[in-house]
Automatic annotation (TrEMBL):
InterPro entries: 7tm6_olfct_rcpt. It comes from Euphydryas editha. Keywords: Membrane, Olfaction, Receptor, Sensory transduction, Transducer, Transmembrane, Transmembrane helix. The chain crosses the membrane at residues 28-50, 62-80, 119-145, 157-181, 307-326, 332-351, 381-401. This is Odorant receptor. GO terms for biological process: signal transduction. Belongs to the insect chemoreceptor superfamily. Heteromeric odorant receptor channel (TC 1.A.69) family. It is found in: Cell membrane; Membrane. It is a multi-pass membrane protein.
């Protein structure tokens, strides 16, 4: 994601500048991006002012200005909050777990990482394709029908050299608009996927918490899998992105660690109190993962919340203008715009809803953690974990509008 964010000025080319020329490049490039976006917006405002007749006849051009305004505000917001953005990414790298605790079933973050990466590539490619078509189609229409380009570039310039320069500015500005809006969607979706991946890991750890204690005490994984293979039924359709496998995670470690964790016991009593201390330690680790998730969710929501409000307002207004245009002239172009704008807001609502769904499954995973076999102390710790998960994990726009599928239907 960094390259795309750097191109649109939302990420410094030199993240930690130590020399003057590095600071200079960061600031100058950001100014260029803001200048190009602001210049096109001002051209549109001047064009509206000079050709204004009434609000309904100018509604289409006013709608064209909404993405420009949103882009300028998004780039400006990222420019002022870059340190918070870097801290957010650093928090993921330092605190997110890559694999679950060793249990009867185990999982890693591989699938959620691949999903986030593939989504970033796919959505960015779609954004670039859309902007390319938006830029090329007016030129094709101009060459085919000899219709003037002036209405599209918001100027009445007739000299060829100036038209070329204005056209290039239009192309560059539209590319910045697409990347600013599109990469924020990618940023939100990818972080939501990784957060869901951590929730998957937490659910897996909770379900296996007693088995983690048994394995730590030297019980063989094969002996556990023969007796408690029904855990696979509990895990069906309970993970969004990661996949749990009934394999011993010792095979993921090096030889030195393997010597310390290979099980030797085949006869055991899962209800024995000798495993309570190890169970308590496993539950504390689950509590730490839960705390990391809650802290990250709060930081993530605080960072994206203002921009989410902006995007919801912008998309709602844009949809209103498109629907009004559809009442006057209903064609495939209007339908395509409606679908594209609806899909834009759907990304935020869908992935926000995914977080809510997986967070709700944590309590179910705790209930399926073989808690009847635990002693009093581990049960109290398990209750504490359950209490910590009672608060819904919801990302809200502006701190009040939940990003879920219900909001999408309302919009």
């Amino acid at each position: 994601m960094e390259i795309s964010l750097k191109i649109v000025g939302c990420w410094d080319w030199y993240e930690k500048p130590r020399k003057e020329y590095q600071i200079f490049i960061n600031n100058i490039y950001l100014c260029i991006v803001l200048f190009v976006l602001s210049n096109l917006l001002l051209s549109l405002i001047v064009n509206l002012y000079t050709e204004w007749s009434d609000i309904m006849s100018s509604l289409e051009k006013m709608a064209d200005g909404l993405p420009l305004i949103a882009s300028v505000l998004i780039v400006s917001y990222f420019a002022t909050k870059k340190e918070i953005l870097y801290e957010l990414v650093k928090y993921i790298n330092d605190n997110f777990k890559w694999r679950s605790a060793r249990g009867l079933t185990n999982m890693t973050m591989v699938n959620s990482h691949k999903t986030a990466k593939n989504f970033a590539f796919f959505y960015t490619a779609c954004t670039i394709f859309s902007v390319t078509m938006y830029v090329i189609m007016p030129v094709v229409v101009h060459l085919w029908t000899k219709q003037p380009l002036q209405p599209w570039i918001y100027t009445d310039i007739s000299y060829t050299p100036f038209i070329v320069l204005i056209f290039l500015r239009q192309c560059l500005a539209q590319a910045f608009v697409a990347l600013a809006l599109g990469q924020f969607s990618v940023f939100f979706a990818c972080n939501s996927i990784l957060l869901c991946g951590q929730l998957d890991l937490l659910c897996c750890c909770l379900r296996n918490v007693r088995y983690t204690a048994l394995l730590k005490a030297g019980v063989q994984h094969s002996a556990l899998s023969k007796l408690y293979s029904d855990i696979k039924e509990d895990e069906k359709h309970n993970y969004l992105y990661n996949k749990a496998e009934m394999i011993d995670s010792k095979y993921h470690y090096d030889e030195k660690v393997i010597k310390n964790i290979i099980g030797v016991k085949t006869d055991f009593d899962i209800y024995s109190s000798e495993y309570d201390n190890a169970t308590s330690e496993a539950l504390r680790e689950c509590a730490r993962v839960c705390q990391v998730i809650n802290v990250y969710k709060e930081r993530f929501e605080k960072f994206v919340s203002p921009v989410l409000v902006l995007r919801v307002v912008q998309v709602t207004l844009y949809l209103c203008t498109l629907l009004y245009a559809a009442t006057l002239k209903f064609d495939m172009i209007t339908v395509e715009y409606l679908v594209a704008v609806a899909l834009d807001i759907y990304v935020y609502c869908y992935f926000g809803n995914q977080i809510i769904i997986q967070a709700d499954r944590v309590s179910t995973a705790a209930y399926q953690s073989a808690w009847p076999a635990m002693g009093a102390r581990p049960r109290r710790l398990l209750l504490n974990v359950l209490l910590a998960t009672l608060k819904p994990v919801i990302v809200r726009a502006g701190g009040f509008l939940p990003m879920n599928l219900h909001t999408f239907v309302v919009v």
